[in-house]
Amino acid sequence: MKTSRERILKRLRKKTDYSQEALKNVQNRLDNAFLPYIKIPTMDQTDEHNYTQFVNKTLLHKAEYDFCETQDDIPPLILQFLKRYNLPHSLKIAPHVKLEFLLTCQDFPNVKIKSGFAIDTDSTSLSLAYGAIAENGSVMIASSNENPASLNFLPENHIIILEKERIFTHYEAIIEHYYKNNNKNILPRFINFIAGPSRSADIEQTLLLGAHGPQRVYIICCNKILSRN
Prior knowledge:
By secondary structure, the protein is α/β, with parallel strands linked by helices.
């Protein structure tokens, strides 16, 4: 005896057009389904204005921030951060091609650096941001094998490397850029927008940092990273 589910599916199959032309039309709709529905706000803002706005907003979120000209300036900034809070000299970094220079860097005396996904014993992690949004001071990190999402949540301290040229005016602009510059059939499992440390004020309306994730977020904006695909 057929179940109600089987009877419904049978009726649907009878009414579905499986011809090559119909399948092609469906594929065309899927390929163009996303961008037409994004209304890009018209904002005539310069890159420098976006940068200034992003820095001001991200500092309001209680994130720490530094700027450097080249990737060679990144290791000393990371070391200063670890020493400033007396953190263990260990670092779990994303296995991204643009971060490979950190594995062979000589500017990390006595710092143990490993790449991969985070585990509960990691105190400090480092990720590469896809970009940032100027209007609210958040960074966007797309999950992938090269950028494990566990790095964003498990360690108490999260260092994020951001390329200056990837600061966008608003959400719509960065999503459009991602959609146009990545394989549409391999979208990330999810995307994280991070604006400062994790926080909560559920208990007696007292703000607590690190409630559901990192207690500290340190963003290093680099003008140029040479390790590119």
